[in-house]
Specification:
six-stranded parallel beta sheet; binds 6-phosphogluconic acid; Rossmann fold
Length: 236
């Protein structure tokens, strides 16, 4: 399923309304966040327009991926979320389960696996998030699984250590085993630079098989796009 919005703001409002309903329907909502520019824009809208309406204490926050840096580093996905969202809403610290990017990379992976095992409800032998937010890079990566390491997607482990292809930065990432087991996945994709990959993946053409983003299950996923990212789609 996909939805195309006039602006990032409209996209953010759609997601905000979804989150509001989810917290009204359930007493605990498990969500995995992503880094990137689109979530940042969404967090800003959530902080301004949903700070009072959403019951933030019902949300249990995790991440789909994290860079192996200190939580105060400007590259940290946790730091971005804290600055754009957590600092502005009523969250109980106990509901925030971050990836400890400050540890040695392998230790950070082990630590996060334990965090998932101890804190996320399991169904069919694996942790199940209610909501999984994903972005897609211009190269077709998602979470921190990049095309050159596409095999990590099929790992038997809940998390893996991945590496950025250009900078070599280590990252902790969830694998397909957890991502595709989520109740609902939102792909947040905005901007002209994503248009080609969106077209290739959604229409299963070109090099789509080389892109980790193409391995995300289609049955429980909604693509939330702006007009720029969706400009090459022939069906609308
Ligand atoms: C990260 C992300 C990553 C991101 C995409 C899209 O930590 O880098 O989780 O997968 O979502 O790179 O990023 P943009 O929205 O900035 O294009």
């Amino acid at each position: 399923m996909h939805k195309i919005f006039e602006s990032k703001h409209d996209l953010a409002r759609y997601f905000g309304d979804y989150l509001l309903n989810a917290t009204q329907d359930k007493s605990e909502v498990y969500i995995a966040l992503s880094g990137g520019s689109t979530p940042k824009a969404i967090f800003e809208v959530l902080a301004k327009e949903y700070a009072k309406s959403i019951d933030w204490s019902k949300l249990y926050f995790f991440w789909g991926d994290e860079r192996c840096v200190d939580p105060t580093d400007s590259e940290s996905n946790f730091r971005m979320t804290r600055e754009y969202l957590f600092d502005h809403v009523e969250t109980k610290a106990i509901n925030i389960f971050r990836v400890k990017g400050e540890l040695e990379p392998e230790e950070a992976v082990e630590d996060y696996i334990t965090t998932l095992e101890e804190n996320v409800p399991f169904t069919n032998g694996r942790p199940q998030f209610d909501i999984m937010l994903l972005g897609m890079g211009d190269d077709g990566h998602t979470a921190s699984i990049f095309p050159h390491q596409i095999g990590l997607w099929n790992s038997d482990n809940l998390c893996e250590l991945a590496q950025h292809p250009d900078s070599g930065q280590f990252r902790v990432t969830l694998t397909g085993k957890v991502i595709n087991h989520s109740r609902h996945i939102f792909f947040l994709v905005t901007g002209d630079n994503k248009a080609d990959k969106v077209d290739e993946i959604m229409n299963q053409k070109g090099n789509f098989k080389q892109y980790p983003a193409a391995l995300v299950s289609t049955s429980n996923t909604t693509w939330l796009m702006d007009k720029a990212a969706a400009q090459k789609l022939t069906f609308k």
